Amino acid sequence: DEPGRWDHWPSGFVLTWPDEGHSNGQVVLDRGDILLPMKDYVTDPITLTVERGYVTRIQGGLQAEVLRDYMASYEDPEAYAVSHIGWGLQPRAHWSMLGHYGKETHIGMDARAFEGNFLWSMGPNNEA
User: Fold this and answer.
1) Which of 1, 55, 76, 93 gives the lowest tally of CB atoms within 10 Å of its CB?
2) In angstroms, rounded to a whole number, what is the distance separating the alpha carbons of residues 31 and 17?
3) What are 9-36's pLDDT values in tens digits?
4) Is the dihedral of CA 31, 16, 55, 103 positive or negative?
5) E-strand stretches of the chain
């Protein structure tokens, strides 16, 4: 490692970065998936359209509208970049944890790390 670099091994997940500017397709967040910025479970599908490494459309119902508003609040095109993808490996983390505690009491690490989880993230990629 190097000074100033942050690694978070206790959480139990691995991640990698995309080939910046080359990701294309759709990501569908479905019922039971987790919106970490809101620390909430998805109740209706949200479709994210990715073009040249950036989310260009967020479609769906109320939660999609909330996510669009949240992302727009950054007033930064890099907020829409495909940041990283990861896989949860931690058998002691639980998908259901968000339902057990108030949103202000945790950072959502269980949601990122529960065994079998697939994590997909938007935002500036400061590591790659």
Assistant:
1) 1
2) 25
3) 667 888 888 888 899 999 999 999 999 9
4) positive
5) 13-16, 25-29, 34-35, 40-41, 46-51, 54-60, 82-88, 118-122
Per-residue confidence (pLDDT) for residue 4, from 0 to 100: 75
Label residues 29-62 b or e (16+ Cβ within 10 Å = b). beeebbbeeebebbeeebebebeebbbeebebee
Residue type at 83 in one-letter notation: S
Tell me the C-alpha distance between 57 and 83, whole Å. 16
Query: Does the pLDDT value for residue 121 go beyond 90?
Result: yes
pLDDT digits (tens, 9 = 90+) for 59-93: 999 999 999 999 999 999 999 999 999 999 999 99
Q: Indicate the SS3 state at residue 72.
A: helix
Query: Residue with structure tokens 């967040």?
Result: 29
User: Which residues have CB under 8 Å from 88's CB, separation 6+?
Assistant: 12, 13, 112, 113, 114, 115, 116, 117, 118, 119
Please give the helix or strand (H or E) that residue 109 lies within, else none.
helix 109-113
Q: What separation in angstroms does the CA of 113 have from each of 53, 86, 97, 119? A: 24, 9, 11, 8
